[in-house]
Hints:
The protein is mostly helical. 68% of the residues lie in helices and 0% in strands. The protein has helices at 2-41, 45-52, 57-69, 73-85, 91-95, 97-109, 119-145, 153-166, 198-211, 213-223, 232-249, 253-262, 270-291, 299-314. The radius of gyration is 23 Å and the shape is elongated.
Amino acid sequence: MFILDRILPFIIPVTRRVKGYIRFVQNYIRPFIKWFLHAFTRLSELQRICYGARAGASRTSQVERSLILSKRPQIRRLVLDLDEAAPYVDNAELLKFAPRAARIVMQAKRIKNNVHPDFARLFGTCVTSIWGYRRLMHQVEQLRAEKYDSDNLDHEQKLLRLWQLLMPEAPLTGRVSKQWQDIGFQGDDPKTDFRGMGMLGLENLLYFATAYNDAAKHVLLHSMHPTLGYTYAIVGINLTSMAFNLVKTGAAKTHFYNLVVQHRQDFSTVEDFHKLYCYLFFEFDRFWMDSDPRNIMDFREIYQAFEITKLEALHNDSTIFKTNLVVESV
């Protein structure tokens, strides 16, 4: 790790320059390639993507890129309008994005519905998935920005519910107690540990303990191991940060774009984000135990290695993280 830390600052600028050159070349020759393929197939780029790419991340990501790079004023205006509206729409309003986008694109590209009856449906599915993801980014950010408030009864009830779910046979002796350290908080009052991830950190921990209680208790038990143990709640909040960054940077699009297709959903939801978090927590616990750490001081290195494995997996267009959290009995 020491050698990698020394050479990484030199590698990254080179990598960025190479990517910059590739992007420049692609953008320069892209119009010529589009013109040639259109002349040869008589289909627009969006049509070729919708008809030829596999449903899910492969198709949706290509449609998204095509829309973003479009030079047509109508399409550029459409993308801007949908970007501005997406964070604030309800489910019914989000579903109206697809027919509107299909209508504008078909007019701009002169695609006739009677000649290409499947285009609006295939394209519309991608549109709903794209802007559903962008709405999800906003919803997750709102939860992260909401500070834990010990004067907020709802916040306090959620925190106490977390304890009850994880430690049902050990009642809390008080709201402020050293017992919180038993489930991996740093001090006597957990509220200070939520400063980085806000209510998103608590909501994630609570969802894991509620929806996958057996798995959460299984992970908690591992965290109490005398030599391989770790701070359950603090690690959980770190994994909230990982999940949040995967969504914010767009790396998680592969998972979510495939998810909506496989589960036959219209768009991704906050619950889908919680499930991604549960997957990461359960898998990190397995990764940690398999790594056989010397002590908690190995956390940073193992955490980074785990994150790299997930980022590499998300480079594959077919990746979807399945929350089939099976606890093996011994």
